[in-house]
UniProtKB/TrEMBL annotation:
Family from the record: Belongs to the ATP-dependent AMP-binding enzyme family.
Gene3D superfamilies in the cross-refs: 3.30.300.30, N-terminal domain of ligase-like (3.40.50.12780)
Organism annotation: Mycobacterium deserti
Keyword Chloroplast: no
Any one GO MF annotation of this record: acetoacetate-CoA ligase activity
InterPro entries documented for this protein: Acac_CoA_synth, ACAS_N, AMP-bd_C, AMP-bd_C_sf, AMP-binding_CS, AMP-dep_synth/lig_dom, ANL_N_sf
Keyword line: ATP-binding, Ligase, Nucleotide-binding
Residue stretches making up the Acetyl-coenzyme A synthetase N-terminal domain: 32-83
EC annotation from Swiss-Prot or TrEMBL: 6.2.1.16
Name of this protein: Acetoacetate--CoA ligase
AMP-binding enzyme C-terminal domain mapped to chain residues: 512-587
Residue ranges occupied by any AMP-dependent synthetase/ligase domain in the UniProt entry: 90-445
Length: 626
C-alpha cells in the first residue's frame, strides 16, 4: 500500500463531475466517502433518488419492500423497458456506434440504430416471439449484435449470447439450456489477419437447438423501419438477459438480471462512477461472451457513442487498441492488465505514437492491475489519465469497486466502493477487518443482483452460490484489503487461496511480481494439500520466445517474489509450462488445476469446452506427482 496517489482530481474535475451534481440533487455532502456512506446506510433513499435523478418516470413510494438477501423486492408494481432509456437519448450530431474491424471502419447513426432495431423487433413479433421467449446470439462484437439485443429487449423477450470464438459445443452448453426460439448469427469473423468461417459450427448449433423457429443472419439486419420503435413495458424484475458463469465445472450457470435493476445499476456505473455522458466515445475491448459487452452497450443509456471491435488487440501491432482509440477519438478505453503488461514488454509508448488527446480515462478489469502497470499507464499514456481499475462480475453485470472522477488513484488499488454497494471485508468469523486480507462481502441488497438462476426453481443454486458462508450476506469469493484511505486491493479468488503454514495469501500478488519479468510471459501458482499433510506450492511459468529457465532465472524469479511480496510466497518449485489454461473470459484455472494435482479426475473437475485451450489440461495431468 502506498500513500502517494498517481492521479488526483482537479477542482474542475470535482466541480464538473456528474457524481457531484447528483450529491447536490440529493442534498448530500459532495465528499465521495460521505456520499457513499449515505448510499449504503439508506439504500431505499439512494436508489429512489437515482430513479428520480435520471427521470425514469413515475415510481412507487416504497422503493424497497423487503431487504432480505436473497429475495429483496425493488420498485414493486413499476413497469419500464431498458430500450426506452436508449431511445430518449438518441441524437443527430454524432454516431451511436462506431464499428472497427481489422480491415474497415463504419459508423451507425442513432436513427439507423433505432430504425434497424424497430425493423428486427417487427420481424421477431412476426415470428411469434413474445415476452419471456429467448432470442440468442452466436455473434462477433458487431453492431448487429447490439441491434438484435435491443430488438429482443424492446418486446420483452430475453437475450443471451456468446462470441464466435466458442465452439458449437461450448455454445450449446450455454445457449442450449434456454430452449431458444430465434438464433441470430454471422457467417464468421476476422481475427489476427485471418477469416474464421463459422458455417460448420452454426449448422451444429442449429441441429442442437430443436426449439428454434428461425435463424437470422447478421447480414439481414440492415432493413430500417421508419416508424417508431414500440417497446413493451415490463415489470421491474422482468428478465432482460441471461449471462453465463465460466462453466469450468458442470454446465455454466445462467444468471438472469431484470430490466429495472440493470437500468439503475448501469446508469449509476456509467454516468456517476465513470462520468460517461453524451459527449463521450466509449470503447471497451470485449466480446458478447463477456459481461463487459453488456456494460459497454450501457453507454447508449446516456447518449454516448460506443465502439465495437471484433479483431485482435495485437494485430498487426501490439498497441492496436491505442491505435483504434486514437482513430475514433475515444475518451474512455477499457482493457485488461494482461494487455497493458504486453504493451509495456513490447516497449510501446502510446502517448508518442498515437494522438490520445481525447482520452481521459483507462478502465481495467479481468484481474488485478499491478502498481507497476498502473504507473506505466501514467508514464506512457498520460499523467492526466485516470486509471479506473474495477472489480465486480457477471453476477451483478457491473462492478462493486472502481474509480470515480472525484477520488484519487493509488497504484495497484481500486479507488472506492461504488455507490449503493455495501461492501465490507470480513474475516472467517464475520467480523470487519481493515488493513488486512478478508473476504469481499456485500451486506445489503442491490437491484442488479440476479433475479434468479435459469432452471433453479427453488433458488437453491442461487443461495449456494453466494449465501451459504454468511447467511443473508453476499460472499463474492474474492480476497480484498480495505486500506486506511478507503481504497481496495483485490488479491484474487478466495476459493483458490494459497494457505501456507496457516497464512492466507493471494495468487494475484505473485503474478504481479513475476509477470513483469521480461522472460516470463505468464504464470500460474497453486497450493495443493498433500495426503501426508504436506503442502506443495509450485509456480508454472510460460516463458517468452527467446527465454530459457536457467538456474539464474529460477533464482531471480524466487528473489523477485521474496523481495516484492514476501518470503512466504516463494514457491517450492518453478516449472516451465507450455501455457496457462483460462476460462473463455480470460480467468486462470487455478482451482481446477489444483484439484488435478490433488488426484481428481480431469473429466470431473473441469468442463473442457469451457477452457480456451483444452489440450493444455492434458499437459498438467502429466505433471501430477505419483
Amino acid at each position: 500500500m502506498t500513500a502517494t496517489p498517481q492521479w488526483e482530481p482537479t477542482e474542475q474535475d470535482i466541480t464538473e463531475a456528474r457524481v457531484t451534481d447528483f450529491a447536490r440533487f440529493v442534498d448530500q455532502d459532495s465528499d465521495y466517502r460521505s456520499l457513499w456512506q449515505w448510499s449504503v446506510d439508506q439504500p431505499a433513499a439512494f436508489w429512489g433518488a437515482l430513479w428520480d435523478y435520471f427521470d425514469l418516470g413515475e415510481r412507487p413510494e416504497q422503493v424497497l419492500s423487503d431487504d432480505t438477501m436473497p429475495g429483496a423486492t425493488w420498485f414493486a408494481g413499476t413497469r419500464l423497458n431498458y430500450v426506452d432509456q436508449v431511445i430518449r437519448n438518441a441524437r443527430t450530431d454524432r454516431p451511436a456506434i462506431i464499428y472497427v474491424g481489422e480491415d474497415s471502419t463504419t459508423e451507425l447513426s442513432w436513427a439507423e440504430l433505432i430504425g434497424r432495431t424497430a425493423a428486427f423487433a417487427r420481424k421477431l413479433r412476426s415470428l411469434g416471439v413474445s415476452p419471456g421467449d429467448r432470442v440468442i446470439g452466436y455473434v462477433p462484437n458487431i453492431p448487429e449484435a447490439v441491434i438484435a439485443f435491443l430488438a429482443t429487449a424492446s418486446i420483452g423477450a430475453i437475450w443471451s449470447a456468446c462470441g464466435q470464438d466458442y465452439s458449437a459445443k461450448a455454445a450449446l452448453d450455454r445457449l442450449g439450456q434456454l430452449d431458444p426460439v430465434v438464433l441470430v448469427t454471422a457467417d464468421g469473423y476476422r481475427y489476427g489477419g485471418k477469416y474464421h468461417d463459422k458455417s460448420a459450427d452454426i449448422a451444429a448449433l442449429r441441429d442442437g437447438l430443436p426449439t428454434l423457429r428461425a435463424t437470422v443472419m447478421a447480414s439481414e439486419l440492415t432493413e430500417t423501419d421508419d416508424g417508431e420503435l414500440d417497446t413493451e413495458p415490463v415489470e421491474f424484475d422482468h428478465p432482460l438477459w441471461i449471462l453465463f458463469s465460466s462453466g469450468t465445472t458442470g454446465l455454466p450457470k445462467g444468471i438472469m438480471h431484470g430490466h429495472g435493476g440493470v437500468v439503475l445499476e448501469h446508469l449509476k456505473a456509467i454516468a456517476l462512477q465513470s462520468d460517461i455522458g453524451s459527449d463521450d466515445v466509449f470503447f471497451w475491448y470485449t466480446s458478447p461472451s463477456w459481461m463487459m459487452w453488456n456494460f459497454q452497450v450501457a453507454g447508449l443509456l446516456v447518449g454516448a457513442t460506443i465502439v465495437c471491435y471484433d479483431g485482435s488487440p495485437n494485430h498487426p501491432k501490439p498497441d492496436m487498441l491505442w491505435d483504434i482509440a486514437a482513430r475514433v477519438g475515444a475518451t474512455v478505453l477499457g482493457t485488461s492488465p494482461g494487455y497493458v503488461l504486453g504493451c509495456a514488454k513490447a516497449g510501446a509508448v502510446p502517448r508518442k505514437e498515437h494522438d490520445l488527446s481525447a482520452l481521459r480515462l483507462v478502465g481495467i478489469t479481468g484481474s488485478s492491475l499491478p502498481p507497476s502497470s498502473s504507473l506505466w499507464l501514467s508514464d506512457n499514456v498520460g499523467e492526466h489519465i485516470q486509471v479506473a481499475s474495477i472489480s465486480g462480475g457477471t453476477d451483478v453485470v457491473s462492478a462493486f469497486i472502481g474509480g470515480v472522477r472525484t477520488v484519487p488513484v493509488w497504484p495497484g488499488e481500486l479507488s472506492a466502493p461504488y455507490l449503493g454497494c455495501a461492501l465490507d471485508s470480513w474475516d472467517e468469523s464475520g467480523s470487519s477487518v481493515r488493513g488486512e486480507v478478508g473476504e469481499l462481502v456485500i451486506t445489503k441488497p442491490m437491484p442488479s443482483m440476479p433475479v434468479a438462476f435459469w432452471n433453479d426453481a427453488d433458488g437453491s443454486r442461487y443461495r449456494s452460490a453466494y449465501f451459504e458462508t454468511f447467511p443473508g450476506v453476499w460472499r463474492h469469493g474474492d480476497w480484498i484489503t480495505i486500506t486506511d484511505h478507503g481504497s481496495v486491493i483485490v488479491h484474487g479468488r478466495s476459493d483458490s487461496t494459497l494457505n501456507r503454514h496457516g497464512i492466507r495469501m493471494g495468487s494475484a500478488d505473485i503474478y504481479q511480481a513475476v509477470e513483469r519479468l521480461p522472460e516470463v510471459a505468464e504464470a500460474l501458482v497453486i497450493g495443493a494439500e498433500q495426503p501426508d499433510g504436506g503442502y506443495w506450492m509450485p509456480l508454472f511459468v510460460v516463458l517468452a520466445d527467446d527465454a530459457d529457465l536457467t538456474d539464474e532465472l529460477r533464482e531471480r524469479i524466487k528473489k523477485t517474489i521474496r523481495d516484492e511480496v514476501s518470503p512466504r510466497h516463494v514457491p517450492d518449485e518453478v516449472i516451465v509450462a507450455p501455457g496457462v489454461p483460462h476460462t473463455r473470459t480470460g480467468k486462470k484455472l487455478e482451482v481446477p488445476i489444483k484439484k488435478l494435482f490433488q488426484g481428481a479426475d480431469a473429466a470431473k473437475v473441469v468442463e473442457r469446452s469451457a477452457v480456451d485451450d483444452p489440450a493444455l489440461l492434458d499437459w498438467y495431468v502429466t505433471q501430477r506427482r505419483t
